[in-house]
User: Which sequence fits this backbone?
């Protein structure tokens, strides 16, 4: 994120410089020159302001990213070497001779295991075959959902009251 902010600052600074000085390559007095290769009336240019905006945005992002990478490289030169990391990891893995640290670890509450989920074999089925067969017809004959009717509602005014008016072949029941 720092690279983006740095690039944004570079972009704004470049835009401010160009708009302040208004170079004759992009501007004719106070007006912008249009893009073109013919220069009959001295009001066309091969590098108009809109092209500068696009090119400068890409350039500022590139410069900002490279600067942030360069600055981060300078700050990491004094960081730990791989040998230092190995020695620190070995010290962490070896048991400590510090009894106070070991006591504070042993005094903590034991970790409780999570309860095991019941497997299919563990479940008890209390229903008998007769009970299941009694409920089966009720389960099979559920109400079917009504199919949607093609059409749509539009908010309108009927008799001076706001309401929804249905537009379609058959309004839903």
Assistant:
């Amino acid at each position: 994120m720092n690279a983006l902010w740095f690039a944004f600052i570079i972009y704004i600074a470049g835009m401010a410089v160009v708009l302040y000085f208004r170079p004759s390559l992009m501007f004719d007095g106070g007006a912008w020159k249009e893009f073109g290769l013919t220069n009959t009336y001295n009001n066309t240019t091969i590098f108009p302001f809109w092209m500068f905006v696009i090119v400068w945005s890409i350039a500022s992002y590139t410069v900002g990213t490279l600067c942030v990478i360069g600055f981060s490289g300078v700050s990491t030169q004094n960081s730990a070497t791989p040998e230092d990391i190995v020695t620190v990891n070995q010290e962490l893995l070896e048991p400590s001779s510090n009894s106070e640290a070991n006591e504070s670890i042993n005094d903590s509450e034991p970790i409780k295991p999570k309860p095991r989920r019941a497997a299919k074999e563990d479940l008890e089925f209390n229903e008998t075959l007769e009970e299941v067969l009694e409920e089966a017809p009720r389960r099979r004959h559920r109400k079917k959902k009504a199919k949607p009717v093609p059409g749509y509602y539009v908010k309108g005014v009927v008799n001076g009251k706001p309401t929804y008016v249905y537009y379609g072949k058959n309004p839903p029941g």
